[in-house]
Amino acid sequence: MANSYPKTRIRRVVHRFGLVPLSSNTVASFYRKNAVIRVQTKSEAYAVKPFFRSLSLHSSTVDQMKTTANYIQLLMDNGFSCMPKWLTCTSGKLWTLHKGRPYYVTPWIKGRKLENQEDYEKLGQALASLHITSSHFLSKKAPFYDHIELWKSHDRLFRRQMMKAYQTDIKIRRWYKKFGKSCNRFSDRSWAELKRPEIVNLLRKERIRPVLIHNDITSYNVIISDDGQLFIIDWDRIKVGSMYIDIAAALTNTTQFNPVFIYSFLKGYEELHPLNQTERKWIASLYRLPREAWHATRFPNRPRSRNERNMLEIMEQTWLLRLKAMDFLEEWTHH
User: Ranges for the Aminoglycoside phosphotransferase domain (predicted)?
Assistant: First the structure.
């Protein structure tokens, strides 16, 4: 794919943040080929991030950018340090609009990906810090993003597609036959646990005192800098929501279903924010949900992207590891 961001556009954007670029190049993410622009200046490198709206929200791109920037400003003002600092442009905002697209700029974090137990412990601590910090300044009137209802709709669609499996391509049909019923059993168990009075009460309390969630913590979005500090990047999807969903999704997307890494993550989290048995049970239930399968089969009539095909292949390759990870979390709920 050609570079979507001409040099002239990049120069105009970064000039608004007081930067003079010497060179620039686009860097791919898991989802986009031109996800971020790395700009080199005389002093250091910066990440120039084009902002794309979330399709799950009905608000405009600019409105979503405003909301995101407001949350980021609150986190910076309250001392949250596990993200790159957003630069302020000449207008005084944390973002700028150019040709209808919002952009924001942060220092480029040079470092490595998650590798060892200490890294995962730091990640758990960073996520706990995000939840604790934001709980102090969010009001109970903050708009709460309901992942549960969204995930239930994805589950229903997945089940309908299973019924039509013989009309799909042979690889999808084979995958459904091998793993589909197990996915449904996992979901049924988690939805049943959601109805337990202690879980219902827990979720009710969470809405009274909400937190900010990153909403997209993956291995790609966590960097250990050269000096050993952990940074979470790509905050485009930050929302007011459930910290338990944020924990469960981060465990799924980063720990490689490795009980050692899962334990280190949870140990780090609980060093700052201890969890009671009901909270642990709900996290284990959320982790059990087969969200990757739901996502990969959401659009049955659309040609499968490589990422969607990869999701099902990865689920098949890691199936036994996932089962062991679920067993580990089940044991963790009783400790």
Answer: 34-270
* Residue-averaged pLDDT of the chain: 91
Residue 265: count other Cβ atoms within 10 Å of its Cβ: 26
Average pLDDT of the residues in 137-166 = 85
Q: Give this prediction's pTM.
A: 0.93
Give the C-alpha separation, 135 to 288, whole Å. 26
pLDDT score for 137: 92
Looking only at the bridges linking them, the beta strands covering 96-98 and 222-225 are unpaired
Band of the pLDDT at 1, cuts 50, 70, 90?
A: very low
Domains detected in the chain: 7-108 (3.30.200.20), 117-332 (3.90.1200.10)
Confidence grade of residue 168 (pLDDT, cut at 50, 70, 90)? low
Token pair 């209802």: residue = 149
Judge whether 290 and 332 are in contact, CB under 8 Å. Answer: no
pLDDT digits (tens, 9 = 90+) for 10-55: 999 999 999 999 999 988 776 677 789 999 999 999 999 999 988 8
Quote the tokens at residue 304: 């499968």
Alpha carbon of residue 103 to chain centroid: 20
Q: How far apart are CA 149 and CA 192, in angstroms?
A: 14
Q: How many helices, marked H, and strands, marked E, lie in the chain?
A: 13, 10
DSSP 70-96: HHHHHHHHTT--SSPPPPP-TTSSS-E
| Alpha-carbon dihedral sign for residues 124, 129, 135, 138 | negative
Between CA 38 and CA 256 the distance in angstroms is 28
Closest to 218 in 3D by CA, of 87, 41, 31: 31
For the record, the structure tokens of 205 come out as 């309390």
Model confidence at 176, in pLDDT bands (50, 70, 90)?
Answer: confident
Hey, what amino acid is at 238? I
